[in-house]
């Protein structure tokens, strides 16, 4: 890995992939076809892009039973335990409706209501992602969403990965459809004869999925437009080169555009990590992908001290931040921007991906400056409650009418004054 002084760290910042104009036109055409032709459009595009002609879009009970028989009891138990950890964590995020009463009889409050229906997109292609099922479905379930719909692109034999089906079934997902890409987003947003529309779409996907989510936003809500995965490791001289290198490569193997960065106060550690990355790359199964990621988006930045290192990390606002310093908790107190923070050498990033409990759907591309991980809050809406008493309107009516006239809205003022007569 290339080693640089921190002054060039700003070069790391990347803009979100907006896609090409041709890709956007393709997505718009697909969405329009799905809106007009429904199931038939989905079947056509599934045959075109996934090379499979589907007779039924919905996953059957028989397919789910086959998925269970394809996995060992040990793996099924691991999925169940991970789900329990994730549910326990998210159950602590639940908010309650509230009301407050003032002396003049005014009652104000907030009503929390779960969304009626949510669509979960689970990517396919190069790998299977049962963890994506858990992380997107569980907070919706905890929030109280009654209808959760899952879509995922099928393999050429028309099936979905066993781990994905088992994870969804363990969480009680009743609607699972073998459809992916922009056509799946269109189906969730506009509805078809088979797939009824939802209120919000969550889950990662390729550039076509991301562009489709952007286009349907407004008809439905979406979680975020996620970019390639990122990890930043903040370390002092106590960091261990072999562990840091392994963690950097854990993100680099995601895809060629993933970003893996070490920010350290120690040149000795920087050099050791650089050597260790090359060593561990040599026998990595996804070597070509990780190698391209490290070459194009990987870096090691050496700072003049911990304060400069922390400012660099805050500037990067990474999706995943690992802190490997002598006192990780003290260092963490100075971090302002990060999607998820992992403290100490035993808190490797994959722990958060699969098992610990916090959500692994995180802000990327520096959006951790203003965004948060996927949570229960993403699956509820809030309604304000206002109940004014007669005493309250007598006390404040004239002020409200005056404010309305300040904005030139005389009918607003009159609506109040009618009640003061």
Automatic annotation (TrEMBL):
E.C. no: 1.1.1.23
Keyword Hydrolase: no
Molecular functions per Gene Ontology: histidinol dehydrogenase activity; NAD binding; zinc ion binding
Active-site residue list: 319 (proton acceptor), 320 (proton acceptor)
GO biological process, one term: L-histidine biosynthetic process
Annotated residues for binding of substrate: 229, 251, 254, 320, 353, 407, 412
Catalytic reaction list: L-histidinol + 2 NAD(+) + H2O = L-histidine + 2 NADH + 3 H(+)
Cofactor note: Binds 1 zinc ion per subunit.
Gene3D superfamilies per record: 1.20.5.1300, Nitrogenase molybdenum iron protein domain
Bilayer-spanning residue ranges: none
Pfam families: Histidinol_dh
Keywords: Amino-acid biosynthesis, Histidine biosynthesis, Metal-binding, NAD, Oxidoreductase, Zinc
A Gene Ontology term for the protein's cellular component: cytosol
Cofactor(s) for this UniProt protein: Zn(2+)
Residues where Zn(2+) binds: 251, 254, 353, 412
Protein name, UniProt field: Histidinol dehydrogenase
Organism: Litchfieldia salsa
Gene assigned in the entry: hisD
